[in-house]
Amino acid sequence: MSAQVAGSGLVVVDKPAGMTSHAVVARVRRLAGTRKVGHAGTLDPMATGVLVVGLNRATRLLGHLMLTEKAYDATVRLGESTTTDDAEGETTATTPAAGLDPAAVRAVLGEFVGDIEQVPTAVSAIKVDGKRAYQRVRDGEQVELAARPVTIHDLQVHDLRPAGGCLDVRISLRCSSGTYVRAVARDAGARLGVGGHLTALRRTAVGPYDLSAAHTLEELEDHFAMVPIAEAARSAFPVRDLDDAGAADVRVGRPLDLDLAGLTAVFAPDGEFLALYEPRGAQARAAAVFV
């Protein structure tokens, strides 16, 4: 079926395992009957969960949505290192880990909470001289990425279970965009001296959108559910409702005499979403205009 969507908005997809984010976008593009489709934050094929897809004008919201925090459930396997820091890579080293002290494991994982410097996995989508890092690795190149600042707001350890000679640790975490959970698994294993990788990853939230708002692709086939762009902006950003004069200024890109704490969605008196404005000096200026 094709929904032939005329408006703009967000579709919150519960991505299945084994499918690339690009393939999800292609599926939504077909269902919506529109070419202008993009997503906010790649999920690896192995991963499942919340993938926020934008349609038409809402694709311009996506770059701003990527700045919000994300949440994940994951399983870290201690005792094995892989080429990709997850279960899709080849095993490079094994070290007995089933006997690790649970208190020591919890303590090491707790060290990742806060502002940290993280080296992304070499098979990430980060571009190096215009080429994706994962493609350079596939081409046989040695890739070394620089550490980047990320924030892990919270990390909970749920349980630890022996898995052969390894130890599986189920965790949940909330983190800034750009955080690689695979790198947490890798680095925790390194600190414990046994190596580690990710065996399961499920994204449970992107900003205000969690699994309760997500739809499987099969559900979207039956009923195409889209969050209208105005509703999406109201749920994702602070809001300022303008009078007619302010709305007219926004339509021509003028700065506004508003005291804003950060990136803010501004609306016309009739509820139309107009733009994202941000504080710059003594005024607020447009970061992105949608009219």
UniProtKB/TrEMBL annotation:
<comment type="function">
    <text>Responsible for synthesis of pseudouridine from uracil-55 in the psi GC loop of transfer RNAs.</text>
</comment>
<dbReference type="InterPro" id="IPR014780">
    <property type="entry name" value="tRNA_psdUridine_synth_TruB"/>
</dbReference>
<dbReference type="InterPro" id="IPR020103">
    <property type="entry name" value="PsdUridine_synth_cat_dom_sf"/>
</dbReference>
<comment type="similarity">
    <text>Belongs to the pseudouridine synthase TruB family. Type 1 subfamily.</text>
</comment>
<dbReference type="GO" id="GO:0160148">
    <property type="term" value="F:tRNA pseudouridine(55) synthase activity"/>
</dbReference>
<feature type="domain" description="Pseudouridine synthase II N-terminal">
    <location>
        <begin position="29"/>
        <end position="181"/>
    </location>
</feature>
<dbReference type="InterPro" id="IPR015947">
    <property type="entry name" value="PUA-like_sf"/>
</dbReference>
<keyword id="KW-0413">Isomerase</keyword>
<dbReference type="InterPro" id="IPR002501">
    <property type="entry name" value="PsdUridine_synth_N"/>
</dbReference>
<dbReference type="InterPro" id="IPR015225">
    <property type="entry name" value="tRNA_psdUridine_synth_fam2_C"/>
</dbReference>
<dbReference type="InterPro" id="IPR032819">
    <property type="entry name" value="TruB_C"/>
</dbReference>
<feature type="domain" description="tRNA pseudouridylate synthase B C-terminal">
    <location>
        <begin position="182"/>
        <end position="225"/>
    </location>
</feature>
<feature type="active site" description="Nucleophile">
    <location>
        <position position="44"/>
    </location>
</feature>
<dbReference type="Pfam" id="PF09142">
    <property type="entry name" value="TruB_C"/>
</dbReference>
<dbReference type="Pfam" id="PF01509">
    <property type="entry name" value="TruB_N"/>
</dbReference>
<dbReference type="Pfam" id="PF16198">
    <property type="entry name" value="TruB_C_2"/>
</dbReference>
<protein>
    <recommendedName>
        <fullName>tRNA pseudouridine synthase B</fullName>
        <ecNumber>5.4.99.25</ecNumber>
    </recommendedName>
</protein>
<dbReference type="GO" id="GO:1990481">
    <property type="term" value="P:mRNA pseudouridine synthesis"/>
</dbReference>
<feature type="domain" description="tRNA pseudouridine synthase II TruB subfamily 2 C-terminal">
    <location>
        <begin position="237"/>
        <end position="290"/>
    </location>
</feature>
<dbReference type="GO" id="GO:0031119">
    <property type="term" value="P:tRNA pseudouridine synthesis"/>
</dbReference>
<keyword id="KW-0819">tRNA processing</keyword>
<dbReference type="GO" id="GO:0003723">
    <property type="term" value="F:RNA binding"/>
</dbReference>
<dbReference type="InterPro" id="IPR036974">
    <property type="entry name" value="PUA_sf"/>
</dbReference>
